[in-house]
Amino acid sequence: MRTNRRFLIAGLSAAAIIRPRVAAAQELPPHERALHQAAQREGELTWYTGQLQAEPSEAVGRAFSERFPGVKVNVVRSTSQVAFQRLSQDMRARVAQCDVFSSVDYSHLTFLKREGRLMPYRPENAAGLAKGARDAGDTDGHFQITYLALYALGRRTDRVSEAEAPTSWRELTDPRWRDKLSVGHPGFSGAVGSWAIMMRKAYGEPFFRALERNKPQIGRSASDPVTVLNAGERVVGVAISGQSTLLSISRGNPLALIYPTDGTLMVPSPSGAMANAPRPNAARLFMEFMTSPAYSNTITSYYAESLRPEVPAPRGSRPLDSIPLITPTPEEVEKNIAEVKELWRDIFGV
């Protein structure tokens, strides 16, 4: 009797775990349900991403698999330029590994579209995106905006007061910030590349030469300054990820964001399914997920901006219409990114 009771309890527990997943699948809208059934036969997908950091990227993968049981996400997270290099190596070797590619460098997706490397697929869920995200996507449906990235200044609140902190990008050239700044690298980070394009457009090459004289600590990702500031190695972060900074603040670190008076950088960051995706149905389903409310709910819990009007902005963020914003056009990124990387290497020596 004890054995039977034990099996009965185990069976009821398993049913309790399975039932919500089954119910969730039954509640899917028809277009997602049909793709889910096809994707289950493929079983998984591989996502190359340079957008969110590793922790929220893994959370996105888990949220997808919870909504669509039986389909696993292999998350391959790196900086955007490294992700694109990996994809380029795959293409040269004629190896198909990536199903969905995400970058903060818009020119990556426009290049892939021009080369015929992207699947022409417009997710039905994309119709419900916030206007700014919807309008910045590809008009032919080859890629969608899946991350509205903000990059600002940041400071250690215990070492730089609000009154003495820089309030603009231009102030970073003041000699008082020598050996106190941390920034990423345009050769690795698409976001830092976009920031460098806008700084050259606004202030020219002399801005970078004056910044170099202040000897900033140069990392790779736009989130690296968060780590550097948390460690106390520098006190001001430059072109620092707003999402990563707010997440760090929520965990008790003494940081604060500064929205520059000469414009916070906003980078609409796209994703697209690969034309040669090994798991095409799973790729389409993942694109549906990234344009859905479920995805925005997941990323805002890690302080990324919401892509859907029905999903509130993350705690601590400022409304986009309350701060001056600067954004390079896709054409500016594609035309200038190579020159900016070379200029950076010439001036900073890295």
CATH fold annotation of the largest domain: D-Maltodextrin-Binding Protein, domain 2
Q: Main sheet?
A: 10 strands, mixed
Number of helices: 13
Estimate percent helicity. 40-55%
Architecture (CATH level 2) name of the largest domain: 3-Layer(aba) Sandwich
Distance between the termini: 72 Å
- What is the CATH superfamily label of the largest domain? Periplasmic binding protein-like II
Strand fraction:
15-25%
Report the average pLDDT across residues.
Answer: 91
The CATH class name of the largest domain reads Alpha Beta
Number of β-strand runs? 10
Structural class: alpha/beta
Overall form: globular
Give the C-alpha Rg.
22 Å
Which spans have pLDDT < 50 for at least 5 consecutive residues? 1-24
Task: Return the domain count.
Answer: 2
Give, in order, the helices and strands. Answer: HHEHEHEHHEEHHEHEHEEHHEH
